[in-house]
Amino acid sequence: SGSAAGVWGGLVQAGGSLRLSCASYKRTGSNNAMGWFRQVPGKEREFVAAINWNGGSTTYADSVKGRFTISRDRTKSTVLLQMNSLKPEDTAVYYCAAARGSMLTMLQSEYRYWGQGTLVTVSS
Which residues of the chain form beta strands (DSSP E)? Predict the structure, then answer.
């Protein structure tokens, strides 16, 4: 199995904010691109945001652009997803993942290690 990553979600009201934190272990290192994905039960997992190896480049799904911010602290091997102006449609299980390489990617097939996922619930 790959390295694990920790993610902590929660329950928040619509319009509120929540920050997800993902701590990667040694196997992923600090030179991998990182991403966040989410999945609603009964639907396919979808891309949310990604960041390249040094944090210099980021990309977002259109549905979260302007509301979510991905960042990373390479010294601590952590990746954060700051989620603002949350909507009920953001309710999903969120997954942190480490890419195979260092470059930015939205493709799930390019991610090698996946966290266990955490539920984010946004109430209306």
Answer: 5-6, 10-13, 18-24, 34-39, 46-51, 58-60, 68-73, 78-83, 92-99, 111-114, 118-123
